[in-house]
Each structure stands twice: as C-alpha cells, then as structure tokens.
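Hi everyone,

Forwarding the result from last night's run.
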Amino acid sequence: LFRSILDPTCRTAPVSLARLLCDDGNPNLANAILERTYELAPSWNPNLMFYDAADVWEWRMDDWMGVTFGRMGQWDEAIKWYARSLSGTKPDSWERKHVESNLEYAAKMIAR
C-alpha cells in the first residue's frame, strides 16, 4: 500500500491505506499520504492506461481528507474537504447522505 502512493493512476490503494492509518490512530500520516496522492494524481485523465474505482476520483478521497482533518481536530479544514466531497456525489445517493452526515458532525464539533 505504501508503494501505491507513487502511482499517479491509482487513488484506491492510498485511500485504503489512509483508512487503515486512521483506524490505527495515525491521521497525520494518513493526511500526508493523501496530500502526496493529490500531488501525483490531481485529477482523473481518461488517457491513463489504468483506471481504478471511480468513487475515489469523484468523492471518496476528498471525504477521507475530511476524516483525517477531523481526527486531527481541524474541523474547519474537514468541512472544506467534506464540501468538496459533496460536490462529487449524486443527488439522493447513499454517498451524498454519508458526506452530509460528516458535514453535520463537523459543524457540531465546531459549535461545541
């Protein structure tokens, strides 16, 4: 998984690695890995030879960036990433509901 962050055509493995790192209590490293992935794979290119899961290009990686910032207590940054993630979801989808709930939670954490 660590080697996957060097592949500009792949976002699925770095997102999986970020999830594992967050679960293991290391959101800082997860955040750094996702930031590096954004540098190497900033946007999907249809000319790429390999195309991994569409949802990581549309919304999931942005959502995990929000998670990493939230786990670090940086709720304002989390909200920015959740809002970006929301724009990649389809209306009335479970993905949109998921991201909306993350946004609501982050807003509650800021209001405390």
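The mean pLDDT is 90.

Cheers,
N.
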